[in-house]
């Protein structure tokens, strides 16, 4: 990137993602990213004071990309809430699996940030649970679902499916039975919602 | 231990657990355990050819201790299947949390073996799921639960509660809301079973 372009946060994160992918999360430094952007180290340190801050920002952007895609599903109005809820989960699970398979270095970074940066993850998870609450609420209004406390139920549904989307279980995702296992848990949850 | 006693598998595992606890899983060698038992290295290598074999055997024994305790709950006949199922989970969760809190070195070894020794864990998990199937089957007979395939449902119930008993989630267990979160997932599952 030429250094006469304005240094946007997006441009920094694009460069950081590129460098992280090339050298790996352990070896990438803020200085490496500054080099790619052809800016002084100081300029970059002003935005990202540490390697950890850089990794967190890249992860945060990736998480936002996931949750924004899923919000589109939660916002749909055609079809039943049940179909929407199923699609929401299948999409989340598929995004995670594809990411892990096609970009293992970045996935492993994301999995580590998940363990360390409690606040970023909490924010992300709360956003996802609010989408589930939105779908369940629509299902309650349409008399498809029956639940007293939508928020509590949304969180319970999210936690009950942890096995299939929480990165701590990534090793188990490649099992041949994983897809069928999700469908079985889904049936159990769905019966609980109806 | 005096070397005139017969060298039982139990005695070896007791010594191994003691040494593992003292030096940590990384530093403990088969030789250290032989020293405590006052036997030749060769004698011990005949039982446990490697450090990994020793760690697995200690973990396996611990897992069997858990599953045998839980089998007692599955075998109970008084009270409702619902109460039994709840007690089974609360007991499993409490055993895991107590172990992690009071014996962190050993818990971390167990968590690692969980990731590496797929066969041992699969065996353990299948045993636990068979206990759940036993309780659910009793519930179906008593017309408390309604499910077509007890085995599939038992596995789904186990997977849906992973968050609360799978060691990959151990960090999340210390959250102040974890107990309430389990109860919310439990309510969702229970409604699905009824």
From TrEMBL, chains A, B:
Superkingdom classification of source: Bacteria
Limits of the HTH tetR-type domain: 6-66
Keyword vocabulary terms for this entry: DNA-binding, Transcription, Transcription regulation
One Pfam family here: TetR_C_27
The UniProt record lists the keyword Translocase: no
Cross-referenced Gene3D superfamilies: Tetracycline Repressor, domain 2 (1.10.357.10)
DNA-binding region: 29-48
PANTHER family, per database record: HTH-TYPE TRANSCRIPTIONAL REGULATOR RUTR, TRANSCRIPTIONAL REGULATORY PROTEIN
Name of this chain's protein: TetR family transcriptional regulator
């Amino acid at each position: 990137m030429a250094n006469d372009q304005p240094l946007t946060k997006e441009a920094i994160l694009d460069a950081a993602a590129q460098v992280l992918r090339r050298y790996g999360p352990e070896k990438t430094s803020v200085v490496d990213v500054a080099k790619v952007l052809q800016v002084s180290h100081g300029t970059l340190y002003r935005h990202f004071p540490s390697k950890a801050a850089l990794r967190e920002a890249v992860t945060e952007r990736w998480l936002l990309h996931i949750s924004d895609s899923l919000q589109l599903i939660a916002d749909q109005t055609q079809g039943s809430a049940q179909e929407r809820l199923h699609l929401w989960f299948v999409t989340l699970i598929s995004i995670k699996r594809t990411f892990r398979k096609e970009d293992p270095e970045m996935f492993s970074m994301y999995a580590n940030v998940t363990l360390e940066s409690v606040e970023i993850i909490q924010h992300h998870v709360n956003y996802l649970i609010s989408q589930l609450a939105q779908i369940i609420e629509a299902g309650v209004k349409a008399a498809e679902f029956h639940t007293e406390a939508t928020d509590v139920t949304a969180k319970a549904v999210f936690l009950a499916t942890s096995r299939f989307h929480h990165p701590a279980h990534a090793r188990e995702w490649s099992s041949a039975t994983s897809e069928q296992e999700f469908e079985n848990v889904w049936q159990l949850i769905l019966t609980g919602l109806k």
